[in-house]
Amino acid sequence: MYNKQEWLDKIDQVIDRGPFKDDWGSLSKYRVPEWFQDAKFGIFIHWGLYSVPAFANEWYSRNMYIKGSEEYEHHRKTYGDHKDFGYKDFIPMFQAEKFDPDEWVNLFKEAGAKYIVPVAEHHDGFQMYDSEISKWNARNMGPHRNIIKELEDAAKKYDLVGGASSHRIEHWFFMGHGREFDSDITEEEKEGDFYWPANREPDHHDLFSKPTPTRDFLEDWMIRTCELIEKYHIRILYFDWWIQHSSAKPYLKKIAAFYYNLANEWGEEVVICYKHDAFMFGTALVDVERGQFSDVKPFYWQTDTAIAKNSWCYTENNEFKKAKDILCDLVDIVSKNGNLLLNVGPRADGTITEEDQAVLLEIGEWLKTNGEAIYGSRTWRFSWEGPTKIQEGQFTDSKDKVFTSEDFRFTVKGDSVYVFALNYPDTGKITIQTLGVSDASKLPTFCGIIDSIDVLGFDEVPQWQRDEKGLHITTKDVHSDKPVVFRVKMV
Hints:
Strand 2, helix 7 (147-157) and strand 3 (161-166) form a beta-alpha-beta unit. By secondary structure, the chain is an alpha/beta fold. It has 12 helices and 16 strands. The model has no long low-confidence stretch (mean pLDDT 96). The longest helix is centred in the middle third of the chain and has 18 residues, at 215-232. The strands form 3 sheets. Strands 1-2-3-4-5-6-7-8 form an 8-stranded parallel β-barrel. The chain has a 5-stranded antiparallel beta sheet with strand order 9-10-11-16-13, with helices on one face.
């Protein structure tokens, strides 16, 4: 039986006995681990009850209870009145009968990913793992499988790092619209129920201050998170938004101290990903949703985005990005001191779409040839060159970026600077101004001595020369619709 007080005591005990305390000053001693900075590329997985209706996006559980929404009308037409068929009635339909964790993780490894972050609990409140906190989980009902553990075990088998994400805190209000009419969400909802607490959704201007979640709910959220950490030994914890709510701050500090101290006991280094300044800067990893920074940052960060432009989960109408566009984003992000976490949305039966697979395998083929310029690399003195400006901020990835033959990105590793030509011209001629001969009377741009230049994945030895206008490279047989990478070896 679940005992809340025992869990609260356990959390305090772990904090008391470890080097990290639940205050920002202590947590600021945290450092993003080297293994994460070497990894560069991971896979996010949105899979849950929302994959059953597969309509619109993963917010179906909220929107189906909003009168007049497309989801509301679709639900009534497809499944009947909400009082007779509510969101909970998707649980027995979620069978995951074709789910093969080894098959998934092998695909992700072939794609070149180094870590995975499946959604452990989305806003809908259905846990994808065996939990003592709630019976509403995938081990106890639906597929009757411990999805998170199976993926963690498969990740270890294929030498990938396993993580998980928690979107639980939004459950405070996520199902609240169901109280506005005759639905299966009733006033009798109490702690432990699937829909609990189903409160009123905050107005936009009060989003992070009012209404304040109750202590019972915040403790429940903290305990669920700490159980996920301890029970499944995850090394990456991703938080979705709304944890920046003022009432969540004390609990975030406890979660971080608990996690960092347990990791210290495990002898491992871990990562917490957050958005919207929910954590004090320097105490965890900055994450940008569906967007990126326009320039290099002195701190390490991550972008999370999806292969599908319109949804995080599988829907029948997903619009898929092209592999070449995702690779350009990956290169841009890595050159600016970040990682890319790329989302896949499997079908309810546990299969991954042919479109998703094709994109992942195309990315993987490129990384097999060019991965040395990505994995384990670091930012160079300059991260980019060219006329195309990256729009900074979240939710900026809906439009394809159009790069020119003058757009380059840079990384460095060992004795080499790697130059990524984002749009290599058919002429085979490029000029990289940043690597030109500097005027000795002025502040030099670059004074290194180049030993040799080769192009990854091609046998041809490029012709090159340097002058004050730049490094001029010429090839005859190098052609690709994806970034072309030159290894510039230094003396």
